[in-house]
Amino acid sequence: MKQRNRKRFDPAFKARVALAAVQERESLAQLGKKFGVHPVLVGQWKKQLLEKAATAFTRDQAQDVERTHDELLRKIGGLIIERDFLARGLPRSR
Description:
The chain is mainly α. It starts with 10 loop residues before the first helix and ends in a 5-residue tail after the last helix. The protein has helices at residues 11-23, 28-35, 39-52, 61-89.
């Protein structure tokens, strides 16, 4: 059996096609023919764009998580240094 190679489209291309579909100057079939993709894909990309458009104006949670992670690592590092300093300075009781 011959295996089909699927075409992969980059996000910039998908966004351009979806924006053209949102403008509704041409039908999905016309846009599909113009951009060389199936009209169903054009409709799916349009739907995805409309569903996820609001996230473009929200604060990026990944950056918040990364910032919190970095702060925690700094705090842990400081505590380890403090623990080691105190462990060397205090005499051990045996």
